[in-house]
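Protein modeling request. Please complete all fields; requests missing the sequence field cannot be processed.
Requester role: graduate student
Desired output: 3D structure, token encoding
Chains: 1
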Amino acid sequence: MASELKTVYLMSGSDRPKIARALERLRARVGEGALESLTAAEATGEDAVSACNARGLFGGTARLVLVSEVEKWKASDVKAVADYLGSPAPETVLALVGEGIRRESALAKACAKAGDLLFFDVPRNKLPLWVGEQFKRLGARADAEACRMLVELVGDDLRALESEVEKLVAWADGEPIDVEAVELLAAGHADPSAFALTDSWGSRDVAAALRACETILERARGSRRDELPRIVGRLSAHVARVRDCQAMAAEGVSAREAAGKLKKNPYYVQKLFAQAGNFSQGELDSVLVRIARLDLAVKGGSRLPAELEVERALVEATRAAAVERTS
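Delivered output (327 residues):
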């Protein structure tokens, strides 16, 4: 067995995709043909020990015994494995995988003496950073807000997040990944409120805009107050893009041509063009000024509650423009 391989590896933690990659690397180093897989739901500790010793009686090349679900083992199973690790079979690597294994457990202590503990945990507040790392691992670029949005839409299932990251990377084909890309491709995981706010503003539906805002706040992972600046930032960026599309439309640029210029999904840009038709240039300028005032207000520039400032601004930015156009 290669000298760099340990006798035993105990793997646990919430980052199941990382555990899967660690196992893939281990299998590649030992050799696929030398793998024996067991599950602790059916195999006892004695069974795992027997599997480790079976080929050792005859010698040969390195082999890997993989046991999953080891959190189901009883104390007697753990003792059997711990006793084995005191005198392990040569050329055999034992890989144990389980959920919720604690470092101070008897199994972890026994494995730490003979091999390595590979615990991969991702705290809930670090999930956006984890998502960003997955994009980088695949050679893609995604901004921080896109990573945060993906977590908001998909949740804390790391396997589901990894799947969505891979889908976004394939779709982007080397282009940067932003919030709009996440909304378009990961929308199957989302409640419509995640991006209904900008849609309802674009269609000048005040009631829907207020409902969407309230739903976002109710489902915020952190405090409602922390979520308010994000709402303002998303609305500001969206209105600015609508104004850009309005200017391009005035120059005779089509939505498809604009999508190429903006490096955005054609469906999304078509939506921006449609919303641009609901406002005059002056109205969009006024909305951006109003949002800038709102941004200052929610960051401490107003004595009124931040939520009230957002509600007032949404009403003015959505309905006031419509009143102005019909006056």
